[in-house]
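queue> pop job 88
queue> type: inverse folding (structure -> sequence)
queue> payload:
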């Protein structure tokens, strides 16, 4: 089985441009190393001089490329990890900026502080080798399997909505949920499994703080002079002690944006597993926002229909739309992924890939770059596939016409 998996990995990597193979290996090594650090006892890093094998392979290939260009070699994995905090524009890689969408990515880095960046995670997923661990696919499949067995799709919707709206909870909040939410009774044990103890690295002045924008944990920088949201895509500006004092802090839960939530360690603070934050909680915020806005237009909306075949089914007097919300930083990597997966079978109505409005703010040319990347890959073009893509606001205008 290991030989088969290895063969699949090699085949997937061969389909990538050489420079992306290098970045994929480095990104895979970073993510695996981070997961090993997180899973160590007490969340502590045990330094034994060893690193995940893809990290070393990526370093070797990167040095071969640099040697051929007459550039100084990177001496060690430690130096490589420091290098990963540099913008990609400084890597001297021969990437087709137009076709692959890297023109939008010149300032991106593989490490966001000491955490893998969004681009790093996308690169690690580009062969599918580590995606199951990152997305906690086995965990989500177990949730779906139980809901199917009990013929209770609403339990899955309630479960997923809870994860999106509660990235950080206390032990008491989890207990209260179990007692007060009968629709989640079916998944009580799995709900607890979705959370881990908040890492000690998030402690700031003997407390945990939550982002007033998205609710995820805030992390102090190395000098503890400011707090940053652990999600790099979050638009929340770093909070200095002065800004924290102006906003004020509250204990317990509160609407995001009104104040900064402050939790004491003795409350047994829990946060979502990293894979669920990356692939469920953050894109789910856009999914729930779309649901609210579409309902505000008088349309019927079903979240994650048919046990999560896609994200939203939109029904109106004139037609039906199927929507998958996608928020990847690199349009080429996303185009490659969705082309491999294909659209769900036996759909009725138009199928849309919708990009959150925040992506337009960060990368205004994203839709054009995605279309170009999709059409440049093997297989039918977007138009021939019957697919449509749009930013969130543009989709809402089109939905009013089509539905």
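queue> result:
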């Amino acid at each position: 089985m290991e030989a088969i998996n290895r063969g699949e990995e090699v085949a997937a990597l061969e389909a990538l441009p050489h420079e992306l193979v290098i970045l994929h290996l480095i990104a895979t090594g970073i993510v695996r190393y981070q997961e090993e650090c997180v899973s160590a006892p007490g969340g502590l890093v045990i330094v034994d001089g060893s690193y995940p094998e893809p990290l070393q392979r990526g370093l070797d290939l990167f040095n071969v490329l640099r040697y051929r260009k007459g550039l100084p070699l990177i001496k060690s994995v430690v130096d490589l990890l420091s290098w990963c905090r540099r913008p990609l524009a400084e890597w001297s890689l021969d990437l087709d900026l137009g076709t692959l969408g890297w023109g939008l990515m010149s300032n991106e880095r593989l490490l966001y502080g000491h955490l893998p960046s969004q681009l790093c995670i996308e690169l690690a997923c580009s062969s599918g080798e580590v995606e199951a661990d990152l997305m906690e696919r086995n965990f989500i499949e177990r949730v779906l399997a139980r809901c199917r067995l009990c013929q209770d799709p609403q339990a899955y919707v309630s479960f997923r909505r809870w994860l999106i709206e509660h990235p950080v909870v206390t032990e008491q909040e989890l207990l209260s949920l179990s007692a007060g939410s009968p629709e989640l009774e079916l998944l009580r044990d799995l709900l607890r499994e979705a959370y881990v103890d908040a890492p000690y690295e998030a402690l700031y002045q003997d407390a945990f703080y939550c982002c007033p924008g998205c609710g995820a944990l805030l992390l102090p920088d190395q000098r503890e002079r400011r707090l940053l949201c652990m999600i790099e895509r979050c638009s929340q500006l770093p909070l200095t002690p002065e800004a924290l004092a102006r906003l004020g802090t509250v204990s317990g839960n509160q609407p995001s944006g009104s104040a900064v939530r402050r939790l004491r360690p003795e409350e047994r603070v829990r946060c979502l597993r990293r894979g669920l934050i990356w692939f469920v909680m953050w894109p789910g915020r856009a999914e729930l926002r779309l649901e609210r806005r579409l309902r505000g237009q008088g349309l019927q909306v079903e979240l994650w229909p048919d046990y999560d075949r896609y994200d939203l089914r939109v029904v109106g007097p004139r037609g039906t739309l199927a929507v998958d919300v996608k928020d990847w930083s690199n349009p080429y990597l996303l185009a490659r992924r969705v082309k491999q997966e294909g659209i769900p079978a036996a759909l009725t109505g138009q199928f849309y890939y919708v990009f959150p409005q925040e992506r337009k703010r960060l990368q205004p040319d994203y839709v054009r770059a995605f279309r170009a990347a999709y059409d440049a890959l093997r297989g039918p073009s977007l138009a021939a596939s019957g697919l449509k893509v749009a930013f969130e606001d543009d989709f809402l205008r089109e939905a009013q016409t089509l539905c």
